[in-house]
Backbone:
């Protein structure tokens, strides 16, 4: 592509953005977020304290934060020009609506089935034997 | 790169790349975007099925084993945290390889590429162990031995989605390792020195970080939520 100019490829002085310090800082941020997620999950398992829905919200925010750091720093998108950032970011952001719409649809479908389909609703009330008891486990696997 | 560009540049007036990146890198970005839509579609179908179902297995009850630890010891999240750590770490060594490539430092690039490949292989081994373990417990496509969190009988959607999506991700990791091995060979042969730049390492790096990025979402969707 020699006819098209870019300020890159090789040996100018513009590559100072790739020094090791921000890379390791990003690594510690990513590791820290993961540790926080696991700590929260463990606390939830032991005490049940952050409610499941609150916890899920926290997880999603932290996941987006991690995704941001990977894309911005590791994939270097933050250091590109605005045109480049937008050509990636806008489709990705529109995709978020796609996710919300489908989940919404799924939950609506479930609500409708629970309201109108008795069989579907009652199927969930039948408990199966816990797999931890060895005799039941053997019995159950034969049935299946 | 931004500091080298004068303010008020007319990007769209022709004669230069309006995105100020090299062609191959831009195409890699667009490929990754389309790939993220594929993964997104998988995760969306997983999510909407899960939202459309009354009960779902508790991941902390399913993923609680660790290699060489007796079955009776429950360690939820520990193994998958290890896998996450391995992948983040290999992402770091990949960036360090890219950074070394900017300085045309062949030895350093090769060194960090080797570390990245080892990280990828470690991740794949972990996943192989996890799949084997789950298969041993009776889980597979179309078979789900785990009950819902509320004790009712679960459908096979849980295992189907788990194996499909982590399998698709694992396949990406595998391709990434193969790409990285090719890049390592080309580095060692001195191909990039002849070319005068290490931009291929950067493109392989973008792919590798994408694999890490997808894992962040898989980790959240399957193990945390």
Residues:
């Amino acid at each position: 592509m020699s006819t098209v100019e870019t300020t890159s490829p090789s040996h100018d002085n513009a590559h100072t953005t790739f020094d090791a310090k921000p890379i390791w800082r990003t690594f510690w941020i990513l590791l820290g977020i993961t540790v926080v997620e696991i700590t929260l999950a463990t606390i939830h398992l032991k005490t049940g304290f952050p409610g499941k829905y609150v916890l899920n919200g926290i997880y999603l925010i932290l996941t987006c934060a991690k995704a941001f750091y990977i894309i911005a720093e590791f994939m270097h998108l933050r250091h590109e020009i605005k045109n480049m950032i937008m050509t990636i970011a806008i489709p990705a952001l529109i995709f978020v609506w796609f996710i919300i719409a489908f989940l919404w649809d799924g939950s609506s479908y479930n609500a409708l089935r629970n309201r109108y389909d008795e069989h579907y609703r009652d199927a969930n009330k039948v408990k199966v034997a816990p797999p931890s008891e060895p005799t039941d486990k053997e019995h159950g696997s034969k049935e299946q | 790169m931004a500091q080298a560009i004068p303010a008020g540049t007319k990007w769209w007036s022709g004669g230069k790349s309006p995105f100020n990146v090299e062609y191959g890198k831009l195409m890699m970005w667009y490929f990754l975007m389309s790939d993220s839509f594929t993964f997104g579609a998988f995760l969306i179908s997983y999510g909407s099925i899960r939202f459309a179902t009354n009960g779902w297995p508790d991941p902390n009850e399913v993923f609680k084993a660790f290699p060489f630890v007796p079955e009776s010891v429950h360690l939820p999240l520990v193994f998958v945290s290890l896998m996450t750590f391995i992948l983040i770490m290999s992402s770091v060594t990949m960036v360090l390889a890219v950074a070394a490539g900017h300085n045309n430092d062949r030895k350093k690039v090769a060194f960090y590429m080797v570390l990245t490949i080892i990280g990828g292989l470690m991740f794949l081994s972990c996943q192989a162990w996890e799949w084997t373990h789950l298969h041993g417990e009776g889980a597979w496509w179309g078979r789900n031995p785990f009950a819902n969190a509320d004790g009712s009988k679960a459908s096979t959607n849980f295992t189907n989605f788990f194996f499909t999506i982590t399998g698709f991700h694992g396949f990406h990791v595998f391709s990434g390792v193969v790409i990285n091995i090719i890049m390592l060979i080309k580095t060692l042969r001195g191909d990039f020195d002849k070319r005068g730049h290490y931009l291929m390492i950067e493109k392989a790096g973008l792919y590798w970080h994408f694999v890490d990025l997808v894992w962040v979402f898989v980790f959240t969707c399957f193990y945390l939520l």
Summary: The mean pLDDT of chain B is 92. Chain B touches chain A through 75 residues (CB under 8 Å). The domain at 20-224 of chain B is CATH 1.20.120.80 (Four Helix Bundle (Hemerythrin (Met), subunit A)).
